[in-house]
Amino acid sequence: MELIRTIRLKLLVSPEQASELNASLKANRDALNFASQVAFDHGGISAYKRLQPLTYHRLREKFGLKSQMACNVCSTVAGTYASAKSNGRLLLANFTHSKLVYSYNRDYTIQPASQTLSLGTLSKRIKVPYLVGEYYQPYLHHEMWTFGSAELVPTRKGFSLHVTVKREIAEPLSRDCDAMIGVDRGMNFLAVATNQMDEVMFFKGRSIKDKKATFVRQRKELQRKGTRSAKRKLKQVAGRENRFMTDVNHQVANEIITFAKCSGSHPCIVLEDLTNINLNTVVRLNDRYWRFSWAFAQLETFIRYKAFAEGIPVLSVSAKYSSQRCPKCGHTAKANRDKKRHRFECKKCHYQLNDDLIGARNIRERGVEKRHQNEVAGA
Question: What GO molecular functions are on record for this protein (predicted)?
Fold first, then answer.
């Protein structure tokens, strides 16, 4: 399987280079909207090979794009409509922000030794020094990682280049596991993890809810004002909240990976499948913001890609009744769980435990069953 990472390079551009990059971004944005209109007029073209013959020459003549830039515009627009069709929402795609994509060795190259890169613009290629965080250095210098596409992103203080790097790794297999780690995700506890020895790791979410409540109060106050400065501040608040939750989910995912590696030499992580959970659950009006804004999917994405990088397989199992089923006797009933007190008590055998830990244990056992089913099917 292919492991992909994105590294951010801060570009140290001169005023002249900044002007050239801004001109390229504007032309590229206008070209994207032009190609989008053509694709939409032809029924929402989602195939690159169909869109390119219709737009390539006009993109070069009308907007002055270089050859590879025009090809990347066609690819970006076709991908956008392919995604819209898969979601069942075919509308005219309007690109309000520039999305200038570069292809490695065609319109950009990197020289890690000198920390410089070469970028294509409308007029010429420019050589730009860059800064990169220490965390990203191994991806640039290790020969196992190869460069992919890159995206030029304007920032408040200049420009950054988001570069994708990738390498091939062997896909981890669950049949080789000697430890199963069940992970239950929630809001009062961001995650509860337990292994085959019933060791437990809790990640409390109360402080996270309090922090998000602060953002909610700020948004309400700014929305009541409705001034231009208030609207600018709203965007900043939204950005801070997103960065805050992203950082929290990274920390939780890292701790889960560490817990899994301490549980066995070849661990396997088991997650509940939360696909369409918000569509199938009735949520009280006062709780809807917390439920629908909670980043369950992002946390799962982080756990998966970090696990694969460590050679740890991840299984998905059904989430149905995971916090209502007794792991001792198997009795399943809604009355077993007291959500307000976060307690589980089986009405049949009277086994008691934290309700989220019950969920994690049931998820772990379902992972064991699924691994066995996979082995039988493979045999």
Answer: DNA binding
